[in-house]
Design a protein that fits this description.
Blueprint (H helix, E strand, L loop, with lengths): L11 E6 L3 H6 L1 H10 L4 E7 L14 E6 L20 E4 L2 E3 L1
Parallel strand pairs: 1-2, 2-3
Antiparallel strand pairs: 3-4, 4-5
Length: 98
């Protein structure tokens, strides 16, 4: 298939799953398929806070980046009704940034 990714040498793959626990759990076969197709790629999972436990220990994932959503009471999301500049934070290797 022209233009398909299998067979290419990808160095890194980031998978964004900013949904709930069930959606994150159901994504695990996709990580296995990515690892099988790209065995030398570094695979990063970006997930919402509280869902990272579903992927911890998965041998097909090299790193998990946790997105910390601001709560509405803290001036965070308005439910997607209005667009705002990104104001979230992430945790990577136990360190909050930016």
């Amino acid at each position: 298939m022209a233009g398909s990714l299998p067979g290419r040498d990808l160095r890194a793959i980031a998978v964004f799953m900013l949904r709930h626990i069930g959606d994150t759990l159901l994504s695990t076969p996709a990580f296995h398929a990515l690892r099988a197709a790209f065995p030398s790629a570094r695979i990063l999972a970006v997930v919402n806070e509280g869902t990272q436990q579903m992927l911890e220990g998965n041998p097909d994932i090299d790193e998990i980046l946790v997105f910390l959503r601001r709560r509405r009471a803290e001036g965070g999301s308005d439910g997607g009704r209005r667009r705002r500049p990104w104001s979230g934070r992430c945790v990577r290797s136990g360190r909050i940034w930016p």
